[in-house]
Specification:
Length: 100
């Protein structure tokens, strides 16, 4: 789920998050740094969210959820099917065109 300019959402089971090192290390993923070593956060979710939080994108994501709730998932699927059908018809017409 996401919207234009939003960070999106990824839902996974905790047991699949077994990296000791963050996928994309960044600010906020390190608990402790010494001259010889460093320790990453133990919280697996926080460890994978390095860098500056995308606050505006998170607000946009919340609005996308609100739209989904207001419009309804079935209506969204219906509209997606109509759009897909239109694209399929257009591309099949273009494929038959002698100019292509």
């Amino acid at each position: 789920m996401g919207g234009p300019g939003s960070p999106g959402v990824l839902v996974v089971k905790k047991n699949l998050m077994n990296n000791e090192v963050p996928t994309m290390p960044g600010g906020g993923t390190v608990l402790l740094v010494t001259e010889k070593d460093h320790t990453y956060l133990t919280n697996k979710v926080e460890r994978e969210e390095g860098g500056t939080p995308d606050i505006l994108g998170s607000i946009r994501l919340g609005l996308a959820f609100r739209v989904k709730q207001h419009v309804g998932p079935q209506r969204i699927m219906d509209l997606m099917f109509v759009s897909l059908s239109a694209v399929t018809r257009t591309s099949s017409c273009s494929a038959d065109s002698p100019t292509m």
